[in-house]
Amino acid sequence: MLNSTSLIAEARTKLEGYLLKKGLRRSSERFAILEEVYSRDDHFDAEELYQAMHQRSFAVSRATVYNTLEVLVDCHLVRKNQFGDEDNTKSRFEKSLGRQQHAHLICVNCHRVMEFCDPRLQLIKNTVGNMLQFHVESHSLVFYGECSDAACVARTKAAAEHANLQEGKTA
Ligand SMILES: [Zn+2]
Ligand SMILES: [Zn+2]
């Protein structure tokens, strides 16, 4: 596994090459956004990234953040996920260089995102691809359910008790 400094260096080189090839502007904003993405370990949306840039006092427009994210997805430096949770219009992004293919688990109560790797997914992809003569390029797999995080369990329990109480009042 690469350390984060050499990972960022590799990502910069890759982005540089891609922008050159596509004749796109190699602006410092794009590289700053790339570095912010590679400093994070979470699944974030474009707005969160925009806010994080501003917290670092990096003046960059929303449009640049959105547009750069699309560029990073196109050159496979960032993976875009559609989790289809309560706000499924939002895409959630994560860095992809130096990371294994993985699938996600999402808690329907606290919206925590967890990851898992299982080599059988690759096997399914190959088998189904061969069987149906279909070239599989990517996949998306999300498990929804309830996590066992203590804070989440406590909050869910409190919410249920509150709902029961409300019900009791109106009955
Ligand atoms: Zn949870
Ligand atoms: Zn992930």
UniProtKB/TrEMBL annotation:
GO terms for cellular component: cytosol. InterPro entries: FUR, Fur_C, WH-like_DNA-bd_sf, WH_DNA-bd_sf. It is found in: Cytoplasm. The keyword Repressor applies. One of its GO terms (molecular function) is DNA-binding transcription factor activity. Binds 1 zinc ion per subunit. Zn(2+) binds at C107, C110, C147. Its cofactor is Zn(2+); Mn(2+); Fe(2+). It comes from the Bacteria. The keyword ATP-binding does not apply. GO terms for biological process: negative regulation of DNA-templated transcription; regulation of secondary metabolite biosynthetic process. Gene3D superfamilies: 3.30.1490.190, Winged helix-like DNA-binding domain superfamily/Winged helix DNA-binding domain. CDD domains: Fur_like. Keywords: Cytoplasm, DNA-binding, Iron, Metal-binding, Repressor, Transcription, Transcription regulation, Zinc. Fe cation binds at H139. Homodimer. Belongs to the Fur family. This is Ferric uptake regulation protein. It comes from Larkinella terrae.
